[in-house]
Design brief:
With 197 residues, the chain is an alpha+beta fold. It has one domain. It has five helices and six strands; from the N terminus they run H-H-E-H-E-E-H-E-E-E-H. The longest helix is centred in the middle third of the chain and has 20 residues, at 98-117.
Length: 197
């Protein structure tokens, strides 16, 4: 940061720190104890849609890497597009494999970043649910790539594009010591219909 930036009060945005994703398994323990939410085994990485041979090659490399890691047939990662035109790489694991899911999300982000697609990365999320309520409640812990922070997103069941703000604030309070949470609530963007949620 230059002297003029300091005088004018400008600051650099936080650099992405993908290693913060590795805090999710310990945060999941806190989340289960505080609010009864457990991992669904689903997660996703969202990025601005990219076309072309370079991205196709990167996508093939990611699939090969994740297939080798899982040792099972069929890729645990699929590419989907949402109604807003964004692309999602969705990973599915069993609910007790949250560390492996986090490894998948980290590998996808790292691969996109290493191949020059970092500016297109938007967010990653890991899905959670609270069973026993009718209907089961869903929650995502969303990692904002460009901010290096997390926030909870809790859509209301059966409601069209309505979220449970009270639950999101409850989760924020519960996870304050586990994750670097986004302090600016206006950046807690809704991820309606996100695959993996």
């Amino acid at each position: 940061m230059g002297f003029l930036d300091i005088l004018l009060g400008r600051s650099r945005p936080a650099a992405p720190d993908l290693d913060r994703l590795f805090a999710l398994p310990s945060a999941a323990v806190t989340l289960e104890a505080a609010a009864g939410f457990t991992p669904t085994g689903q997660g996703a990485v969202c990025f601005a849609t990219v076309e072309g041979a370079a991205f196709e090659q990167t996508h093939r490399e990611m699939r090969a890497l994740l297939d080798a890691d899982t040792g099972r047939g069929g890729s645990p990662v699929e590419l989907r597009q949402d109604e807003y035109g964004y692309s999602w790489l969705v990973s599915r694991r069993s609910p007790d494999e949250l560390p492996e899911l986090v490894n998948d999300l980290h590998a996808v982000n790292s691969s996109l970043e290493a191949n020059g697609f970092g500016p297109q990365l938007l967010c990653s999320l890991a899905g959670f649910e609270r069973r026993g309520s009718d209907p089961a409640r869903r929650l995502a812990l969303v990692y904002l790539y460009k901010r290096g922070t997390f926030y909870p997103f809790a859509p209301l069941p059966g409601q069209v594009q309505r979220r449970d703000n009270a639950l999101e604030l409850e989760v924020r309070a519960a996870l304050a010591n586990d994750l670097r949470l986004e302090p600016d609530l206006s950046r807690w963007f809704p991820v309606w219909g996100a695959p993996g949620l």
